[in-house]
Amino acid sequence: MEKIKILVVDDEQRVRDEISEFLIQNKYKVYKAGLPSAAFELLKKNEIDIVILDIKLPEMDGLSVLPRIKKDYPDIEVIMISGHGDMSSVIEAMREGAADFFPKPFRLMDINLAIQRTARYLNLSHKYKALEKNFSLISEEIQKQVGHNLIGKSDAMQNVISMMAKVANVDNTTVLITGDSGTGKELVARGIHYMSMRKKQFFHSVNCSAVPETLFESEFFGHKKGAFTGAVESKAGWFEIANNGSLFLDEIGDMPLSQQAKLLRVLEERSVSRVGSHDKINVDVRVIAASNQALEKMSYEKKFRLDLYHRISTFVIHLPPLRERKEDIPLIFKHFVDLYSERLGKKIKTIEPEITKELVRYSFPGNIRELRNMVERAIIISENGILKLSDFQIGRRDGENIIEEQQGVQMVWDLEDAEKRLIKKALEKSNNNKSKAAELLKISWQSLDRRLKKFDL
Q1: pTM over 0.85
Q2: Regions in the chain scoring below 50 on pLDDT
Q3: CATH code, residues 157-320
Q4: What is the C-alpha to C-alpha distance for residues 79 and 83, in angstroms, rounded to an integer?
Q5: Which listed CATH number (3.40.50.720, 1.10.8.60, 3.40.50.2300, 3.40.50.1580) goes with 323-391?
Q6: CA dist., res. 132 & res. 212, Å (int)
Q7: Burial of 346 by CB count in 10 Å (0-12 exposed, 13-18 middle, 19+ buried)?
């Protein structure tokens, strides 16, 4: 915390100077005033933390100055001093919000101790306000981001909104969010968190497909110093970090089977043990999981633990793909146009009506993420505040394929077929080394393995 600023208000110059000199020696920044009017002027011009205020003053007494300070500057703490320390004055001063009261003569050391006590409170208060402001900003940003996923008049989205509101009010219920990639599962998870009683606590997001199996326990449960080579210091795991808040487990279907039993145990026992330690650490965490895979089907195929599936699917929210709620596309499109025109500093005055028609006809395999990127790119290349259809790259539409002519050869594009062929190319290029193929494709090894099983490669 920066140097504490103290205003000393006393009509006796000797007392003012004596207190001020002592405070300056103790590294405080000090202001002095002999009259209440002078004190109010200093308060207007400077950010004061603490006022040392005498009760007996000309113009108006300190007991009248105190409530005015607390009204106009509620964050300032006031320490009262008086040569007439009768109990009624003490009681009145405390009732009006004084932090402490000292009858004259007093020891300067006692004043310093009172300042230190008050400073600790101020420090905590400033931290709390900063934290509260940070959470407020986060909440506003989340609302902006979640907004485009929750915008919509379709019955499907109205149902999602209703389900989010209901489960947010039930504190410990585990939630499973299902839906295709790009539908906004993490943002819905954040929405649940910020609508719940845990909103002022930490929200931590983990991509399960990106966690190496060898680091699973250390990352999730933490480790003790010296537990393994490289553990130079003790570390808290994600369950500890998210304690009292929410832990979002994205792509939980990619979690190795060997680790799923350990996760299930923690969910049941609500406690963790760091690697290298037998001590139990109790954790109060709401777990929100998400997957674009059919976990129930995977569990019957022995690819996902059935008991874990039942544990995390207490409350399921399914996010429909954008192609199944086409009536929402114009609203979401408008949201992104407003968002990115402001962010990019490019005011859009005119939007060609053909754009919306083409967007509604498009199948959006990448869902909302694809629409967002499409709008951002279009605004970047737009000119003169006009958004044209030619600014957009709109591919395959529902019920049809785009057919391109390249050197006289017809090419029919299919998203899954293109993905399958790209994976085959990567495997050929890497001599069937999955790790290298995953690097070429810029995806995780687990994501590649999942696609290999999906396409039966």
Answers
A1: no
A2: 1, 130-149, 396-413
A3: 3.40.50.300
A4: 14
A5: 1.10.8.60
A6: 35
A7: middle
